[in-house]
Design goal:
With about 100 residues, the chain is mainly α. The protein is built from two helices and no strands. This is Metal ion binding.
């Protein structure tokens, strides 16, 4: 009986590429693994850079908010020193005492 004209998967035996049914060689497997690892590493580097950018933005916004609240608090203290805004401070103290009494 003569062998079929095509390979087991319908491809002519002399066609370029990996012949049908053949396992990849060690070198081919290593090359594909290295390619995958490089792609994965690039993706992880991109994610890391993006996270660092976002963390930097978050830190900057935290510092801006802290400076804003510090200036507001300083203004309240100055107002309290000259007799203004004392009512707010007393209200806060009452609230703190109520929370401590409840806790």
């Amino acid at each position: 009986m003569a062998p079929p004209p095509d390979g087991p998967r319908g491809r002519p035996p002399g066609e370029p590429g990996r012949p049908a049914g053949r396992r990849p060689t060690f070198e081919e497997k290593v090359a594909s693994d290295v390619k995958y690892c490089r792609q994965r590493f690039e993706l992880l580097q991109q994610r890391y850079k993006r996270r660092q950018e976002l963390l930097g933005q978050l830190e900057a916004s935290k510092e801006e908010k802290a400076a804003k609240y510090a200036s507001q608090y300083a203004a309240e203290l100055e107002g309290q020193a000259v007799g203004q805004g004392g009512g707010k401070q007393q209200e806060r103290q009452k609230q703190q005492q109520q929370q401590q009494g409840a806790g």
